[in-house]
UniProtKB/TrEMBL annotation:
The lineage of its organism: Bacteria, Bacillati, Bacillota, Bacilli, Bacillales. It comes from the Bacteria. Belongs to the aldehyde dehydrogenase family. The active site is at 264. This is Aldehyde dehydrogenase family protein. Pfam families: Aldedh. Residues 31-491 form the Aldehyde dehydrogenase domain. It is an enzyme of class 1 (oxidoreductase). Keywords: Oxidoreductase.
Length: 505
């Protein structure tokens, strides 16, 4: 990428007062000229105004995606050339890394550390799929003599991609990159609280050479725009990341047209610390596991189980470090925990904590709103540790989606596994133990899509990400994802010299 003074001057800044829809390769206002506003959760201040897509705009986006897919050239590009465009998207993102980080922080209130990691990963996702798509192909199958069978992987078509507010740019990358890698067209509906970096990514796709209509971005309401996409007969697939109740609704509605569906939903992930763990590493990893991204992670390890022999030592260290976590200016690299996304989420989080107190739980740290100096008008919650709970309590059963962890004791491996699996969810999980055989044994029995062993990180480009049970189905971020954006066509041919007359007529 050129970084000369000249091109820099020509580039429009990423941070703006107004953001457009992207339909058929054009930056457009909404057909009804409606807009909505986005706010910085750290300060409560206005960030920008955003064009709001109507159903008419959504219809145009679907038509553009359909035309680009049915009659367009993208899916017919030589594979290496499509890979080159994906790499170009990554290169443009990298050349504008700091601007993307800044915009993501302003739109979400997340900390600099978190935003940097997520923007980096979004870039690497495009690079990963630029490579992965080259190796994605059909097969030749063994057949009895004189028959030949091969399979082709054909792009599934027009994909609606609906994303949540907690990792806006990263979720958009997880969806757009594999879909366009295999030649699909997409219509992306970002969450209304955090649409900005997704719109910019749409613009970057165009700049990198993705043809008009292949990537469309339609910010707007879930019940209008999202629902319209899910029900539309000309949309072939829906990929959704969000809450479990909305995921169920989408699956039911998508069934009317038998759309392909992938769902990345909520979680209540267990974190098991055994008596033979490296306690300090387990404390640090568990702290990251819940408080990273202000606990607003689908795979937040929000149920912490500690072996009774080390419970007191672990909890005292964990609580001490929780109290040291720094809240405040998200742009400060020392800040550990950013803001909560909005007032509604703040009320939800506090409601859960209050319900736990009412049911007799004990608050070991936090338990109330925070008011970091200079950020009093934002939405903040103290990192919260709750003990003296049991599996009948709401805080143990339901996803809180905030900086709140519940801690419980277990007495042996069998009980640990039973408690870990006693949930309707099955997304992440973690095991801390220096005994490799035990860690593997436990990992094998946990009902979850992801198990982290002595490791705080759950997602790298190339590693499958997705859930068991009511955490959804389908895997993103990996090679398998390419299969979920393709259909397999089986081609059988007969190459014998004598005509076949199966009915013998
Ligand atoms: P949400 O379900 O409220 O909204 C997600 C998206 O769906 C938004 O864009 C929203 O506008 C849209 N939407 C809402 N109603 C709709 C409808 N009826 N039809 C179509 N679209 C509709 O979720 P959220 O509050 O934005 O995000 C938090 C949730 O996302 C949590 O439950 C979290 O666990 C989950 N999540 C899961 C993963 C994962 O990979 N499993 C990752 C991140 C977040
Ligand atoms: Mn915002």
């Amino acid at each position: 990428m050129s970084t000369t003074q000249e091109t820099k001057v020509e580039q429009e800044a990423i941070k703006r007062d107004f953001y457009h829809l992207i339909i058929n390769g054009e930056k457009v206002k909404g057909s009804k000229d409606e807009t909505f506003k986005t706010y910085n959760p750290a300060t409560g201040e206005l960030v920008a105004e955003v064009a709001k897509a109507s159903q008419e705009d959504t219809e145009k986006a679907i038509a553009a995606a359909r035309e680009a897919f049915d009659n367009g050239k993208w899916k017919k590009y030589p594979i290496g050339r499509r890979a080159q465009v994906l790499n170009r998207i990554a290169a443009i993102m990298r050349s504008r890394f700091n601007e993307l980080v800044e915009l993501e922080i302003l739109d979400t209130g997340k900390s600099l550390q978190a935003a940097q990691g997520q923007v980096s990963q979004a870039i690497e996702d495009f690079e990963f799929y630029a490579g992965a798509l080259v190796g994605h192909r059909g097969a030749v199958n063994n057949m009895p003599g004189q028959f030949h069978n091969y399979t082709e992987k054909e792009p599934v078509g027009v994909c609606a991609q609906i994303t949540p507010w907690n990792y806006p740019l990263m979720m958009a990358a997880w969806k757009i990159a594999p879909a366009i890698a295999v030649g699909c067209s997409v219509i992306v509906k970002p969450a209304s609280l955090t649409p900005l970096t997704t719109i910019i990514l749409g613009e970057i796709c165009l700049e990198a050479g993705v043809p008009a209509g292949v990537v469309n971005i339609v910010p707007g309401s879930g019940s209008e725009v999202g629902n319209y996409l899910v029900e539309h007969p000309k949309v072939d697939k829906v990929a959704f990341t969000g809450s479990t109740p909305i995921g169920k609704d989408i699956m039911a509605k998508a069934s009317q047209t038998l759309k392909r569906v992938t769902l990345e939903l909520g979680g209540k992930s267990p974190n098991l610390v055994f008596e033979d763990a490296d306690i300090d590493a387990a404390v640090d990893g568990s702290l990251f596991g819940i408080f990273y991204n202000t606990g607003q992670s689908c795979e937040a390890r929000s149920r912490l189980y500690v072996h009774e022999d080390i419970y007191d030592e672990f909890v005292s260290k964990f609580v001490e470090k929780t109290k040291k976590l720094k809240l405040g200016n998200p742009f400060d690299k020392e800040t550990h925990v950013g803001a909560v996304i909005d007032q509604g989420q703040l009320d939800t989080v506090d409601g859960y904590v209050q319900s736990a107190i009412k049911e007799g739980a004990e608050i070991l740290a936090g338990g109330k709103q925070a008011h970091p100096e200079g950020f009093e008008k934002g939405f903040w919650y103290e990192p919260t540790v709750i003990a003296n709970v049991n599996h009948d309590m709401t805080v143990v059963k339901e996803e809180i989606f905030g900086p709140v962890v519940v801690i419980m004791k277990f007495k042996d491996e069998k009980e640990a596994i039973k408690l870990a699996n006693d949930t309707e969810f099955g997304l992440g999980s973690a095991v801390w133990s220096k005994d490799g055989a035990r860690a593997t044994r436990v990992a094998n029995q946990i009902q979850a899509g992801i198990v982290m062993i002595n490791c705080p990180f759950s997602a790298f480009p190339g590693t499958p990400f997705g859930g068991y049970k009511q955490s959804g189905f389908g895997r993103e971020l990996c090679i398998e994802t390419l299969d979920l954006y393709t259909e397999t066509k089986s081609i059988i041919s007969y190459y014998g010299s004598r005509p076949i007359n199966p009915l013998g007529v």
